[in-house]
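dumping the sequnces here before i forget
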Amino acid sequence: MQTAVIVFPASNCDRDAAMALEKVTGRAPHMVWHRDSELPSDVDFVVIPGGFSYGDYLRSGAMAARSPIVKDLVKRAGQGLPVAGFCNGFQILTETGLLPGALMRNKGLKFVCRPQELKITNGNSRYTSAYGTTQNVVFPVAHHDGNYYADDSTLDSLENEGRIIFKYEGNPNGSARDIAGICNAEGNVFGMMPHPERAIDPQHGGTDGLGLFKSIIESI
Amino acid sequence: MKAIIHVGLKPGVLDPQGRAIARSLSDLGYDEVSDARQGKVIELDMSGTDKDAAEARVKEMCEKLLANTVIESYRITIED
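..and the predicted 3d for all of it:
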């Protein structure tokens, strides 16, 4: 099992993501620089980490989504490679078009940083299967642009196809239909604003995030 | 040539920053302001003299990078 983390200028959760992946797979991930043009060929799962890639210039995730490595990532995701984006990673995935919708400025206009309760709304997905009967988890949130927007027909199809994987319990940012995390139609690409990689050790205040990494790794 | 691009949230997309601006203006006594929408302006210095060709290129740039057409619309002006 070989994983990878993409590193952009001003990524700041890349090492958290690496710790989480190493904890679950027993093997350090490749750290792939944004200017590389190809992912290593042995990669089974890729994480796009949180942070403020390119200083959030233009729009959160906009520049990163056009960087050299992401071109190859989009191609590989289209071939079925599992890819997860957390926080800024989710913003980048929507900017590439791999996931529908967009992340807008929080409705309350404030940066929100706190432990956040989430409801698992699809426990059968590749990213949640290891949670078993667990229905609610707590992951940290830390973002300014996490207000998920998509038009009604997109939201309806996400809902009807079971592609809303997590919803907020107590909406922190104004997201449509309390959406915290979604996947693509094929189920291999997943994005969420909260940070499962910051909930993998008792010293983080909880280990609820481990289930997400276990789920996707077990599915490969 | 200069291309001036106005990018803003589409009508119907909630603009919390615009709303905060309108509320602030109202607090300052500008009661005639009923709503505000915030956007951004991007100015590009461009070579060439063909305005139509420039506009077509800038439209492509908007679709590829400058605007996120899921939530934003844009308006292009080409100046000499």
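Residues 3-218 of chain A form a domain with the Rossmann fold fold (CATH 3.40.50.880).
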